[in-house]
Amino acid sequence: MKSLALTTFFSTVLLSSCVTSPLGRSQVAFLPDEQMSQMGIQAFGELKQKTPIETSPQINTYVNCIASAITKETGGQWEVVVFKDDSANAFALPGSKIGVHTGILKVAQTPSQLAAVIGHEIAHVLSKHGNERASQEMLVNEGLSLTKGLLGTKGSDPMVSAALGLGAKVGILLPYSRTHESEADLYGLDLMAKAGFDPRESVQLWENMSKASGNKSSPNFLSTHPSHETRIQELQNRIPSSLNLYNQAKAAGKNPSCKL
Fold it and tell me: What is the DSSP string of 149-182?
């Protein structure tokens, strides 16, 4: 009966909220898109209030040139803000928001390399990874509560609670996060190629990232991101098909002239 209750709970939720990512992967994402957009807009507004914004016309023109070339391929109006932050980072949020840290410009050293970063972040949003992640965590929390209830007094044992929590984190949440990162890498590669940026430079980007991190990365088993080596291999496998998109873009006259 206990296993039947758990099976019924998860089956009901899964059947009512299954969607498909742009790369064809089945997902569970049951939060309304409008709610996700409002959350993204609010979070972005708070970031703009708390984080210094880069005012250099040259840097802003450069970043916007690259971002706009990619967003033309996705449709919609995206807000792009360059933040004064030395960390090698960028992000995109539901609600069509893109943030780029000045620190990433030291690692993404060419327009195509920065396009790989921005394409990756946009791919997260278009793939509804934020919705999927939030939905997963809600499911895990509900599932853990239900499991503890079914275990009775044993469910309140601190050791049991800790074991259940660790099992959920390692077995469900972290692997999904690695899946999101890999999917964003590959879909982002297609997005940058369609915009006229050379997808082959994505490999150099991650080699730069590896050097910037001292060639250190967490083991895949306990990491929310694939290792640099794994990422590079997956990108190399994808590049032939992305090159077809790149060549088509070039033939169509797409040749972004973005200079810093």
Answer: HHHGGGGG-HHHHHHHHHHHIIIIIHHHHHHHHH
Chain CA centroid to CA 169, Å: 18
Our measurement of the distance from residue 96's CA atom to the centroid of its chain's CA atoms, rounded to an integer in Å, reads 14
> Among the options 73, 121, 183, 201, which is catalytic?
121
Phi and psi, residue 28, nearest 5°: -115, 110
Backbone φ and ψ of 114, nearest 5°: -70, -35
Per-position DSSP letters for 177-237, written without gaps between them: HHHHHHHHHHHHHHHHHHTT--TTHHHHHHHHHHHHTTT----GGG-SS--HHHHHHHHHH
Name the residue among 72, 18, 103, 105 with its Cα closest to residue 191: 72
Distance (Å) of CA 205 to CA 69, 159, 243: 19, 43, 17
- How many angstroms separate the CA atoms of 172 and 167, rounded? 8
Classify the phi-psi angles of 96: left when phi > 0, otherwise alpha if psi is within -120 to 50, otherwise beta.
left
Q: What does the block give as tokens for 148?
A: 């503890």
% the chain with pLDDT above 90: 52
Instruction: Give the tens place of pLDDT for each residue, 83-128.
Output: 999 999 999 999 999 999 999 999 999 999 999 999 999 999 999 8
Comparing CA positions, the residue from 92, 166, 104, 98 lying closest to residue 129 is: 92
Residue 121 annotated as catalytic: yes
Q: Which amino acid is at 188?
A: G
Rounded CA-CA distance 36/6 in Å is: 28
Pairing status of strand 97-101 against strand 90-93: antiparallel
Mean pLDDT of the chain: 81
